[in-house]
UniProtKB/TrEMBL annotation:
Signal peptide segment: 1-26
Name listed for the protein in its UniProt record: Orphan protein
Organism: Pseudoalteromonas tunicata D2
Keywords from the named record: Signal
Length: 285
């Protein structure tokens, strides 16, 4: 991927993005996917209640209104967190374009939210939202032939997929499509997201244990320094085990095994679990 550091394109998109090797944003890698899960919970509730005969709008919910968190900020924070740990700049022209389109969709959803709250939902805007959100699912930033680190957009895609399905649910609530059409779209989105998640796992797993023996100058004692490291060289856990005159060595080694397991669980949860949660919700729609 070509590194993208020029300012003009960010200005022309109306965005203020400033990715660097340091932490520019305070969010977590999984924040975008986590918010996507919240959106899907709302969508599922409306989908079920409509099937039970309760007429309502999904996009009238506050989660799609002006008080909702910025979709672009959530996506920026996700990519920044990933960029910090893999030590590769991930933002190029395609990502800037993606964020600009994501911001545009949020503004349109806020407008539709206002019209729905007023009792006069703007159906024309709903149609354009469908087209625009479809563009986020097929965007070239998610294409391996265009972007060799496309899989690091998985968290952002989890959010975009949730938005896309919400628009499908709204189209169903407004009488344009059937329940089966919504479920078919949910399954398509799950498949698309799962392909990115699989590639992300291949890049970020497995964690490996590295151990080195440390001896004193006169061989009076020796220790074993162990680290659990991810594929990018980040230490997830570490321990120094004293082997000389240490009656607790067996217990220390057992505790190290427990620490490694806990570190592996935290790592997996931080990098993959929220995306898996979105996939599960899509499959069970």
């Amino acid at each position: 991927m070509m590194l993208f550091k020029k300012l003009p394109i960010a200005i022309c998109f109306g965005l203020t993005l400033s990715f660097s090797s340091g932490s520019a944003f305070a969010g977590e890698e999984n924040d975008a996917a986590s918010f996507g899960e919240q959106i899907l919970d709302k969508a599922k509730d409306k989908f079920i209640s409509f099937a039970g005969g309760q007429l309502s709008s999904l996009l009238i919910d506050a989660i799609f209104g002006s008080s909702a968190p910025s979709y672009v900020n959530l996506s920026q924070e996700s990519l920044q967190a990933i960029q910090d740990r893999v030590r590769i700049e991930l933002v190029d022209t395609a990502e800037f374009e993606y964020f600009a389109e994501l911001e545009s969709i949020q503004l349109s959803m806020q407008y539709f939210n206002d019209t729905a709250a007023n009792g006069t939902p703007d159906i024309a805007v709903l149609g354009s939202l469908l087209t625009d959100s479809d563009g986020l699912i097929t965007h070239h930033a998610l294409n391996s032939q265009f972007n060799d680190k496309y899989y690091y957009m998985a968290d952002t895609l989890a959010l975009a997929a949730s938005l896309n399905l919400s628009i499908y649910v709204e189209r169903h609530l407004q009488g344009f499509i059937t329940q089966n059409a919504v479920r078919a779209r949910a399954n398509l989105l799950a498949n698309r997201l799962e392909s990115l998640l699989t590639a992300k796992k291949q890049a970020d797993l497995p964690l490996r244990e590295n151990c080195d023996m440390i001896t004193s100058p006169y061989d009076q004692y020796y220790e074993e320094a162990c680290q659990l490291v991810d594929p990018h060289g980040n230490i997830q856990a570490a321990v120094t085990l004293g082997h000389t005159n240490n009656p607790w060595i067996a217990q220390d080694m057992e505790e190290w095994e427990i620490d490694k397991e806990l570190a592996e669980r935290r790592y997996y949860a931080d990098k993959f679990s929220e995306i898996e949660g979105v996939i599960t919700k899509l499959r069970n729609f």
